[in-house]
């Protein structure tokens, strides 16, 4: 039957709708997406060059030998605050694109749960094995080459007296409870740093930042991940002691000043929110990054 003129706009509209649907379908199968519930096919075809981008703009790349994608950066303050979870900030200056610190290990896990609901995918903290697979080989040379990551550079020596006092107080509470992680030589280095006039800094090492740096300020590793060395240590999906809610952290941070501290298998701890000692449940050197289950 010949279409009458009044049907033409209708057919035209259908054609445009069909074209738009085909276009959108094509877009949804390309490696780069804008998140918000994109098809699972995206997660399978994501590459380092074309990361999955979620609804908060977080980028995720595959980690060989695992079934996860890992966020290329530590979780920022701006991203964390989207969740509405408790945020107490730090005693040193930070801006919104710096890694969030001072959250509890439990809040880091809750952020991943919130993000899962928000983005319609499964997010969580990385296991220690996943974190190690993502970190690759530890930095081989000591001292590391300048700007290798945000470690305890000479910039730390410009810290104010109040900053030194506060951070040393926090550290002095932790060390007696973490003594079983360190041998006597390591403990001696830490205690010496706590009692010296300045924070311990790596001789001759500079990294442009006194405390945390904006995420992604240094070169990425071979998988496209930033700050696996330095900036903040990262809470993992694992327990030192589940009974007491003591979680494992991995990786070095802006205050790491000795060779053993920047080895990838160096472990730290962070308590849950129900820890009676606040300094064990919060840390100005610890943040986290998310993984996305494919
Ligand atoms: Ca880090």
From TrEMBL:
- Enumerate the residue ranges of region (Disordered): 135-166
Q: Determine if Signal is one of this entry's keywords.
A: yes
Specify the Sulfatase-modifying factor enzyme-like domain's residue ranges.
89-291
Q: Where are the transmembrane segments?
A: none
Keyword list (alphabetical) reads: Signal
Hey, what's the signal peptide range on this chain? Answer: 1-20
One Pfam family named in its UniProt record:
FGE-sulfatase
Quote the protein name from its UniProt record. Answer: SUMF1/EgtB/PvdO family nonheme iron enzyme
Recorded source organism is Luteolibacter ambystomatis
